[in-house]
Amino acid sequence: MNVISLSAVDLSVAALLILGLAGLSAWIRLGVGRQILIAALRTTVQLLLIGWVLKALFAHIHLGWVALMALIMLAAAGREVVSRQKRPLAGWRGYGVGSSSMFISSFAITILALNLIIKPDPWYTPQYAIPLLGMMLGNTMNGIALATDRLTQSAWQQRMVIEQRLMLGHTRSQAISDIRRECLRTGMIPMINAMSAAGLVSLPGMMTGQILAGSPPVEAVKYQILIMFLITAGTGFGTILTIWLASHRLFDARHRLRLDRLKGDLPRAAQASSSMNRG
Fold this sequence. Notes:
The protein is an all-alpha fold. The chain has helices spanning 8-27, 33-59, 63-83, 93-118, 126-157, 159-167, 172-175, 177-197, 205-212, 217-249, 268-278. It is globular, with a radius of gyration of 22 Å.
């Protein structure tokens, strides 16, 4: 397999493009030039670090090190889910709901794929386990973040509609069912779009990487199909579980809307309602 090695000069040419984009953003006052530079710096540092870590993991294969790496990846993904929401759940649930859903969906599907489909020996071989889990977590994280942000924002903006439905005798599930369906749809749209456009509009990253590394195109396509099916299932199951847990948290046992369980200042009318609910 002939791989064209990239030098520091090659990467510097690509970095000049990022600098040019940041300069153009500043010139037309987009206000994202600094964010582009910080994100590019984070990408460089994080990917260099993971390269060294993976090199060590590949040289010393051990289930404990692979599990530690997987938990660090899960912790970082959970933090990103919370940071991308305007009004996350208050307290530990803001972090725990998304993280636990990602743990159940991503880890379960990754272990299933390693043991029943790919079958490396041993099953936790980091060359297969870490990239697969990374793709699962990354896509599930995006779906969960989009869906949860939509849920809390919609509940906040449509609180009067939800309250009226509750007063008409609806249960908490019935009162928020329309919002919940829209949130699930929002979380799954990116993966549905990715599957619909794959091969026709876009060539997914994993397949492209394998072809650039010298793998036969048909073998690269097989792996890409497998990965897209797995990450779509993981995103879907994770999003459904997260929205179910988060929407349940927006109400109490007496089916009363509890927006005080979200971060952020409540409007005056909602503050009075929440005070009465807590009482």
